[in-house]
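Entry: ArsR family transcriptional regulator
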Amino acid sequence: MFVDLDLRNLDEVEFVFTRRPFTSALLHVAGTAGAMPVGMPGVWRQELHRLIRPHVPHLQLLRYVVPGPLSEDIYLEPLSIDEKLRQIADAPEDPNLLDAAHHFAEKLPLGVRQMIDNQPRFHQAAARSIRDASSVTREFWPRAAALLDHEERRVDLMRTASDRAAILAGLVPSTRLEGDWLRGTSGTPIRARLARRVELFPVLAGAPASLVVMERSLRDSLQTHEWAAVGIGYPLPGLGTLIDETGQPLPEQPLETLVGSIRSSVLMALDRPLGMGELAQAVQLTPSRTTYHVEQLERTGVLIRQRQGNRVVVERTARGENLMNLFGR
């Protein structure tokens, strides 16, 4: 990571979990173009190299900057990859990029300056490359639903500052906790604070892939950093349970495919009757979210709730046991 993050305001931060397949595909393109290190299994790396290699000479701008049309607005709902590619196709030239190219003209390679001067050609090469990159990994997003649901639960349960610091350090490769700072490993990193709202989103990649989305801070007497981190992308934990070391898909979990990962974990936790509080703890959900998923499963007839004294106990019905025998064991 190229940023040192100031964690002193961790208690004030709202962490939000989001799925961003477009940014994941863009990261694969940037990695294939040599802009940043991205850990990918062999089959993916070879296929991406085959598909994107013809466009690499026109993608060298990504070594210096991600232009606005290729960025996602962290404050809006993510667009689908196809929607974002249509947006790129209609994007106008960025005058700020032209100004920067003029200012740093002597320091930029000729090929990069040419792409800044001919931004439509760059947009075209980038869009084709991102479309090709997404075709390599598109099937894995539905298969990763269980892992993504687990990440969403983990973000939802980030409560104390110490827990948050430890989780962030565990999510982002090549970082270390040092007092109130999460330190990157680059030689001269940028320093940034955490914004009041920080989005966390996994990417389909391995270490050392990571990215930090930043915006300029409004400097005042209380603000000491010019930049604020508003989004952090990190390698999806557990990706190795979906693919082997080469990138080939592993067999799916049928119960998760049928009812989803959260409800699958609820059903699997009920090897014996549990109180609602015990169940919430077992599946790492808040009580309200546990109640919601239990209610939905109860409507299908696979669970039943019964009051026993001062507590409500939930257990699998005969239909639920049959479902587990068919798909869950």
